[in-house]
């Protein structure tokens, strides 16, 4: 015999009366099974049970049984506040919400100031009397959507986000399949133009170890007409952990090609590459950024390039120095090691090349001369930044 202690049944509860006298109650998970062989029941506690159909004597629905009982008695009770109150509570306990609301409304017809009925039906007491909560929320510009009060703007944004999430999830599956089918699917990847594919493509790139696949994914990204795709490819061209110089250069070449068609892409490149021209950035990345800025004629980057024309570094060296040796014959001097630090000026030829291309000037590695020239170019409207 199966006997289960159950919590109050949820809406749509099915009751299985078993041949051995037991009772199983819960949500029927396979209601549309044809030529029924099993019953799959999920109890109120979340337990899922599979039961052979041959063990079941009869199937009942809790709401149907409650409705039968209601129709047998409720219509014949007297129209009083007490009776409607009793039936409203009984209907609520037996998952008959529409009938419960009917009785709460009947109570208000008999007693318009009944607090419990007003509260359950969604009214609030104000200095001017009872006011519907729904009306108040709507007056404030809120809309009830999926059980919550939100503004139309919130609903619109959330719907757009949900649409975006669904589209990204679909692209995640599609791109995973296309990557698996490379190289045969390369043309399909390069034909993607939907901005919803940006995040899935980025996710695929981050975990990809094959250089060929990374190159295809980056070429696909850069073709998507969206600022986030362009910024990601710009960032990838400067990734110090990208081992392939060919891939980094491919990113730059693709961006330069697109920048000839779209000035906005050129500005994104300038802003991004300028932002990394500071101390602490790996020299290889600085050199690449400087070279690119020179290639695209980014005169806005001249001040940053001047400051990194010569980099000052601290080097620690060991040198031989006389040290006193004390012995029975007196004090003598031997050779010992001494550690000292010194500043070393390291000129950057790549940065100088970029500066001369951008300005038409060449003060070699004299930063002060470059700074003075730049200050004069700012003060004098007649002095072009670049002298052709």
Question: What would you note in describing this structure?
Answer:
It is a single chain. By secondary structure, the chain is of the alpha+beta class. Among the domains are: 1-76, Roll (SH3 type barrels), CATH 2.30.30.100; 77-140, no CATH class. Helix content is 49%, strand content 21%. It contains 16 helices and eleven strands. It has helices at residues 62-73, 81-93, 97-110, 115-120, 133-139, 152-180, 186-190, 198-206, 211-222, 227-237, 245-259, 263-275, 283-295, 302-307, 349-359, 367-379; strands spanning 13-18, 23-28, 38-42, 48-52, 56-61, 123-126, 129-132, 142-145, 148-151, 310-327, 330-347. It has a five-stranded antiparallel β-sheet with strand order 4-3-2-1-5. A two-stranded antiparallel ribbon has the order 6-7. The protein has a two-stranded antiparallel sheet with strand order 8-9.
